[in-house]
Amino acid sequence: MSRSQATILTNMCLIEDGRGNIVMQIRDPKRYSWSGAALPGGHIEAHEGLVESVIREVKEETGLTIKSPKLVGMKHWYTTDDERYLVFLYRTSDFEGDLRSTEEGEVRWVAREKVVHMDLAYDMLNLLRVFEEDNLSELFYRERLENDFLREFW
């Protein structure tokens, strides 16, 4: 029995400024199927390290150079093509540079308590729990439901 499977590797990073604000990216619904406010991140390129990839993605999408990102968990599910989709979740408050928006979307600092009032990308509140709660390290969507949403398991 083969243990290999088609896999898509991605990352996401919670960036904090030490004053209660986090970086949020407003993703354009015309450009992305997963649109709304989300944390920056993206795909891991072939032959690229995991930490290297999150540093690169954050730089490309926000203009910030992050340092010492800490892996805090992961989100994963199976696509309709039966590929496993993995999102490595990182967190840091160590960064340099000035925040700037790109074609990927507008980026801005948002007070953490105001995030719940934003038009968030699907499941961002569940994802934030993995970033912030020490007893959680995984968000796994085991099954796709009829309305195309997924049922999550912790």
UniProtKB/TrEMBL annotation:
Glycosyltransferase keyword on record: no
Signal peptide residue numbers: none
Keyword Electron transport: no
Keywords of this entry: Hydrolase, Magnesium, Metal-binding
Cofactor annotation: Mg(2+)
The Nudix hydrolase domain, residue ranges: 6-132
GO molecular-function terms, A-Z: hydrolase activity, acting on acid anhydrides, in phosphorus-containing anhydrides; metal ion binding
CDD domains reported in the protein's UniProt record: NUDIX_Hydrolase (cd18875)
PROSITE patterns: NUDIX
Superkingdom per UniProt: Bacteria
Classification via InterPro entries: NUDIX_hydrolase-like_dom_sf, NUDIX_hydrolase_dom
A family per Pfam: NUDIX
Gene3D superfamilies per UniProt: Nucleoside Triphosphate Pyrophosphohydrolase
GO cellular component entries: cytoplasm
SUPFAM superfamilies in the cross-refs: Nudix
Family, as annotated: Belongs to the Nudix hydrolase family.
PANTHER family assigned to the protein according to its UniProt record, in alphabetical order: 7,8-DIHYDRO-8-OXOGUANINE TRIPHOSPHATASE (PTHR43758), OXIDIZED PURINE NUCLEOSIDE TRIPHOSPHATE HYDROLASE (PTHR43758:SF2)
Protein name per its UniProtKB record: MutT/nudix family protein
Organism the protein comes from: Streptococcus thermophilus (strain ATCC BAA-250 / LMG 18311)
